[in-house]
Design goal:
By secondary structure, the protein is mostly helical. It contains 4 helices and no strands. The protein is rod-shaped and about 85 Å long. The N and C termini lie far apart (57 Å). Helices cover 89% and strands 0% of the residues. The chain has one domain.
Length: 96
Amino acid sequence: MNPVERVLYDEITRLLDRLATSVPDASLDEFRAANPTLRTRLDEAEAALAAQRAALLESYGRWRRALEDVENLWALAAWRLSATEQAPEQPATLAA
């Protein structure tokens, strides 16, 4: 589980804990029968929440790849710098 998944998991767990203490113990079928419009809105809100979670995880994946790209480019720059610094030493060694 990556850091963003942990944060999202913690937040949804806290939400469920709050709901468990504040929502009465009615069955889902009773709730749907009594409040069909509210149930539709809840379904839409939960779908939006799931879509936002997916978007965050996808964005975090792109973030991680961008971090790796930057790290790899800096490593390449350091490698090339060390290669150019060593290049003048090689002809002197060969001449000796």
